[in-house]
Amino acid sequence: MSLLTRQGKTAASPPALADRPAGQTSTAKNPRPSLTPYLLLLPALTALLLFVYGPALLSLIGSFFVIPLSGGSWKYAGFNNYLKVFADPLIHQAAWNTLVYSLATIIPSIVLGLLLALLMEKMGRGSWLAKTALILPMTANMVAMAVVFKWIFAFQGGFANQILGIAGLAPVNWLDEADTSLFTVILLGLWRATSLCMLLFMAGLTTIPSSIHEAAAVEGIRGLTKLRTIILPMLRPTVVFVTVLSITGAVQVFEIVNVMTKGGPLGSSETAMTAAHKVGFEYFRIGEASAISFILIALLLVVGTIGRQRRTKESS
Question: For the whole model, what pTM was predicted?
Answer without folding.
Answer: 0.81
